[in-house]
Amino acid sequence: MASIILPGPRRGIQDQIARLHWPLIIMLSLIAGAGVVTLYSVGGGSWSPWAGTHALRFAISAFVMIVMGLIGIRYWMALSYPIYFVALIALALVPFIGDVNMGARRWIDVGPMQFQPSEMMKIGIVLALARYYHGLRAEQVSHILYLAPPLVMIGAPVGLVFLQPDLGTAIMIGATGAAIMVAAGLSWRLIFLGIVGAIGGAIAAFRFGVLHEYQLKRIFTFLDPDSDPLGAGYHLLQSKIGLGSGGLVGKGYMMGTQRELNFLPEMQTDFIFTIFGEEFGFVGSFGLLLLYFGVIMTGMNIALRSRSHFARLAALGICVTFGLYVLINTGMVMGLAPVVGVPLPLVSYGGTVMLTIMAGFGIVMSAHMSRDPDAGGL
Amino acid sequence: MRVNSNDPEKKEVVTRRAVLLGGGFSLLLAGVSARLFQLQVLEYEKYQRLAQENQFNTRIIAPLRGEIVDRFGETLASNRQNFRLLLMPDEAGDVDAALDRIRRFVDIPEDKHARLLREIRRTQGYAPVEIVNNLEWDDFSRINYELPHLPGAHPEVSETRNYPLGNATAFVIGYVGAVTDRDLAAPQNENQQVLLRQPGFKVGRDGLERTYEKELRGVAGAMDVKVNAHGRVIEEIDDSISPPVQGQTLGLTIDADLQLAAMKVLEGESASACVIDVETGDILVLASTPAFDPNIFTKGIPSDLWRELNESPYKPLLNKPLGGVYPPGSTFKMITAIAAQRAGVDPSFSVHCNGKFWHGNRFFHCWKKEGHGRVDMAGAIKHSCDVFFYTMGTKLDIDGIAEVATDLGLGETFELGIPGQQNGIVPSRDWKRRYYAGTPENQIWFPGETLSVAIGQGATTATPLQLAVMTARIASGKAIRPRIVRLVGGLELPQNNAPHMELSEEHLNVARLGMYKVVNEVGGTAVRSALANKDWKLAGKTGTAQVYRITDEERRRGLTKGEDLPWHRRDHALFVCFAPFDKPRYACSVVVEHGIGGAKYAGPKARDIMTAVLNKDPARMKPISAESLTTASVGRTREG
């Protein structure tokens, strides 16, 4: 354990704050700011019901991130498995004590607030796998004996989330776990087998009716959206109209007609990128994508400069989760991916996701604070 | 197990894989960006157009139906906007509170308030309840403005066809009703199709409303409206409006005052009256009683009312002047007189009437049992002597009578634009051949039949309109054709100057003189129908059409008078007349179904109607011009 204890003298809190990765914080704040601005417009030019709450939630989440960043990475490593198991137990309890919302049981009441165990699991899986591979030697990673625990660690939450049913989150958790295994050095032979297995599993899911009808519908709609413009493809078509009609520079702030006329469902959550794109055009939405790119590159840079294997893999895992959010959501609203209900991180309205992501970056920040000053980044 | 976490081999692997993942992410993000570029820059115009189409819808604006006015511009059919307020109780939530809020804008009396609450309870809150109708515009617009604060309130504007004269014009104008599948199936352009599908749109179902549907309907307008995803209109684009064109106004020959007067005279009878301008053929009065109220029909006919109207023995759904056929009886005698003169009988030819006439192997009876003594042709008309006309019947060929009857307008229908005209029957050899086409043995014409036709019985039938046309043609000598629609929009229908008939003035004069004597000479059958104003002389002819032959058995029991028979077996009473005698202008026919006798029951009614006509003398007044109809809303509304 000595290896993860910070060397040198203890620094004062002001020094600590000065050492935070401020460019990362600024980029995250800009993204969340884009969310506030868009939610203000979606609310019809009003702070309520979304924009004000969103700003407040970001402030709280940013504070949580900084506090988490100030906690040494070794403590996070120690908490890895406990966090994972709490999330797993909560997930297992959802079917019994959870609330049904929009046809799926995903929420658990904790005092006055609700939280989604599946969101906590997104962090939990990253921490647990990072912790697991921290303890393996390089040659053990691809060994058959050491392959089973991570597969179970990934498979159990994926299965539980899939049963909620929440296909989007299940895919996110599965993909994040797989990405960490790949990053940890899984042999190419096993990676190839994994891809074949995933494809086979997907085909099996189709063939044996594991997927719900609405999930299938979404997938086929994504493949051929114009086939049913008033049915399942309606929202996708309306989303493309919203984005496309925004043009190069957009219709202007608060001038989006698709927004004004309520052609889009879930404007404040899943389809918020459409609203942003409609009002700010290609210039605005590409700018937002660049910010996301910046955040992920910064996060990866932090990961590669970390001194511990745990920190490296954890920070990398967080970046993968974050990147998946961005890719799936933007792909979804543009017709490149099925509509699976994945929010746009920090922009979509939603407290649990906001907290999850900022907590994730808290881990990244912690890795940054414990970095090896000599290690080179990307 | 201790592991060196800073195993450089592990670090190296992670770095390699991280570069790979980062590169993969960058590639995918580039793909997303490319897609974004495609949508927002390359395909911008396509989506821009789609967004526009999303936002705007075309809304059809129904045109106002053309009005119908009388010859002097008084409104007979118009449109009334009905502003009403409905309440959907299930949307309102607390009904009491909702009504209280509405009461701030419109007055709801206590008793009505209680009735509304009962109705809401009865419908369990799922049916809209009409709170008020016929709202003033100011109140209506204020309610619309306050609508966000009035949950469950639904203001509504509906157009109602309005017939100010009610049942008086029911048979002339007809009525409008809901669009049927048949209307939709009829070939028509898209604009009309869309119009017919507008909720609450009405089309002409009967009368002129039906015949002139095309002219009255007008052309739909359109307007772009901004709608949201739920199709709810959130903005009207005012400069996109293409205004609807109101249907054309119809100007009729009818005189509303006289029409109402005639309806009043006929009230309580199953009767019809028809007044025609003998110079022009303009129909001034076309009355039929009893009549239905078209204002009720327009809202949809209640089935119990419909059944009642259908089953009534007074036939309130029959347009009697055009669709009722009656034996003309003695009103036919002018035709026989003219036909006789044409066949060479001198008007001074006289016959001694002793009450009966032997022909073939039986007696033909005169209506006056004791006989009229010696009568000439005019005198025979005056006394309505049957024996004289039986004698004519022996001298005449049936086809000679039929020719005159046809010349005078019997057996003919006219282009009025009102459906349901009957032809009636002018008996002739040709008619009999056609009538008994299947049984040649019945086609032979018997001389005895000519005797019946000579007094207007036998197979002879005519409509009151035809009798009025006959009288008008006798009076003016002109082959006038009746019309009821003068103006369509800004266009006056051509009324060609009626040519003089082929019948000679000399022959017609004998008929006219006979009719004069009927009313104005002592002993005439209708002296009681003389006009009170001695400056005007009425010339007329009574008629009684037998409905039921009193049997010898009944006669023995002392039943001789029509009044003793049940209503449906009584004879029809007829009267035709024209006035003023010296300068004829108006002809009139009155038929009272089961009215027993023309002299006693039809004549006085015709006299009352003609008195009203002569008092007003509408033919002297200038009717409304075609130009004045091109402006919207021309109709004057009757005061009171």
Coarse morphology of chain B: elongated
Helix content of chain B: 25-40%
- How helical, in percent, are the residues of chain A? 55-70%
Looking at how many chains there are and whether they match, the oligomeric state comes to heterodimer
- Stretches of chain B where pLDDT is under 50 for at least 5 consecutive residues are none
The chain-level structural class of chain A is mainly alpha
Topology summary:
The complex is a heterodimer of chains A (378) and B (640).
Chain A lengths: L12 H7 L2 H21 L4 H24 L2 H25 L1 E3 L2 E7 L2 E3 L1 H18 L9 H19 L4 H17 L4 H20 L5 H11 L10 H13 L10 H4 L11 H33 L4 H25 L17 H19 L9
Antiparallel strand pairs in A: 1-2, 2-3
Helix pairs in contact in A: 2-3, 2-12, 3-14, 4-5, 5-6, 5-7, 5-13, 5-14, 6-7, 7-13, 10-12, 12-13, 13-14
Chain B lengths: L7 H35 L1 H12 E6 L6 E2 L5 E13 L1 H4 L2 H9 L6 H13 L6 E4 L4 H9 L7 E10 L7 H4 L1 E4 L2 H5 L4 H7 L5 E5 H5 L1 H5 L3 E7 L5 E4 L13 E3 L3 H11 L4 E7 L5 E7 L4 H5 L4 H9 L8 H4 L9 H10 L8 E3 L2 E4 L2 E4 L7 E3 L1 H7 L2 H10 L2 H10 L21 H7 L11 H8 L9 H13 L8 E4 L2 E2 L12 H16 L18 E7 L6 H5 L15 E8 L6 E7 L5 H19 L24
Parallel strand pairs in B: 2-10
Antiparallel strand pairs in B: 1-8, 2-3, 3-4, 3-5, 6-7, 8-9, 10-17, 11-12, 11-21, 13-16, 14-15, 17-18, 19-20, 20-21
Helix pairs in contact in B: 12-25, 16-18, 16-19, 16-23, 17-23, 18-21
